[in-house]
Amino acid sequence: MTILNPTLNDLGENARLASVGLLNAALADLTDLSNAARMAHWTVRGPHFAALHELFGKFYADLGGEIDDVAERVVQLGGTPDGTTQAVGARTRLPAYDATLRDGIAHCRALAERYAALARTTRAAVDEAAAAGDADTADLLTGTSRLLDKALWMLEAHLA
Ligand SMILES: [Fe+2]
After folding, report:
1. 100 three-class SS
2. What is the 51 CA–ligand 1 centroid distance (Å)?
């Protein structure tokens, strides 16, 4: 049972509880994806090394910004971010990233699958937050889904 800290924020407790759950689910997945992007940044090899090393590094940095915004909104709503390594490992809905991947296209494919999956669950969370009456969390996650879509486009351009 999630216990919310008291706040003068006028959103109802039900809306805040719903959003904290949605945001913490997104936090785990985004953190897992950011670590996958960083693994790709570190391990990619092949003729497109320079471009992909830089692209995957930018993905990691961009996800870091989203992670911070999502976790801070959890706190603003009176919740506690599930941000520890253990919580992320237990909560993530993404499949484990293959640490043996080296080929750039294989990294692009593995990341594209994860970006697409996370964009789908993030859009569902947007609808749920809006239905719960928290337009601001819906707006925050809308921005997240837009960032995920943009990265997916860049990955799929490499796969064409
Ligand atoms: Fe680096």
Report:
1. coil
2. 13
